[in-house]
Fold this sequence. Notes:
Strand order of the largest sheet: 1-2-5-4-3-6
Number of strands: 19
Number of domains: 3
Order of helices and strands: EEEEEEHEEHEHEEEEHHEEHEEHEEH
Number of helices: 8
Structural class: alpha+beta
Helix content: 25-40%
Largest sheet: 6 strands, antiparallel, barrel
CATH class of the largest domain: Alpha Beta
Shape: elongated
Amino acid sequence: MTGEERQFLTDSxxxxxxxxxxxxxxxxxxxxxxxxxxxxxxxxxxxxxxxRGALNGQEVSGVQETDRGVMHVVxxxxxxxxxxxxxxxxxxxxxxxxxxxxxxxxxxVFLDDHGLRTIGFHLGERTCxxxxxxxxxxxxxCSSVEQRCNELIWKNISIADRTVSRDEYEKISSGDVRSxxxxxxxxxxxxxxxxxxxxxxxxxxxxxxxxxxxxxxxxVERVKGGPRIEFVCGGRALYDYAGKHAMLSALxxxxxxxxxxxxxxxxxxxxxxxTHRKRIEELGTELARFRASELSQPTAxxxxxxxxxxxxxxxxxxxxxxxxxxxxxxGKTIVLFAAAAPKPSLxxxxxxxxxxxxxxxxxxxxxxxxxxxxxxxxxxQGGGGSGKGLEQALDEAExxxxxxxx
Length: 406
């Protein structure tokens, strides 16, 4: 990206300009691709999104680098030779400048302090990421890198760019420049953080590290065999902090405490929840035993085996499973349970001494009620469907049992 057309390369802070339309091409959906003699609009490139703004008041919805130059995607009508006034969205531009300059700083410190080279960069709409060429990154390493980066920001170190020839590049690139120069490139733009970092880059940057504001690492994840660092800088970091602070303050308010005490409150609630859940499980078992004695009377007898068949209007499947296990524990018992609500379910179970495969029995009968399920041996469970046909499914299961045990 060099040449007189790309004025954003020489001054990232200029956002208003005048130019002449060099060429217009028709695009899909009634849009036009406008090429200018000179432009301040940055096209999507090098992990950095494109600028937004307007040409003669018409929204620029995209900026792309093509073999013809920088193409501005607009909705309006333009003709070659037209004089235009351009205005770049400064808020978006400065945000990108903060993020991109912050990335250079972050990449340099990861390389210097831990030997981890940046192999990928993406500037997203909400957060940014760099991919590092290493096996892993620890929380301690991230914390130390974040601390050092912010100390360098507070020193307000100057950041500048310059375009050099290939020969000059080769002289200064003896391990000092983080980026490699492709074989077919004869001229390259270098962005320098004074006495700290040099990188080949075509992006927009702030004039000094102080304008980055702050760097905050949000998380680390493993992607394609290596660590990916998610981070935010400047205004994005402020937005991230404000959102989290508001959430913590709201949660603290609900518990009538300070946000600094939330961890203790949550630990206490978690312990109480575990205690309550254990007690609920104990009560559920007791209830299942009580109901089992109530429901243990057989509805039919097939040979030496008792059948307990029940259709419940409203019954939790978990509680029904506990009851079925208690009932079949009496020995020589087959349990056929169904519940219409809150979710249609079938539960088939039998004692260990019953020569039946409940999984196969459920598969063959559940289809009558439009249900699916599975299991095997002495237990099977099914669900789905509308709840219609449950009684027929139970009757079919009992009929098949009579055939199997006769």
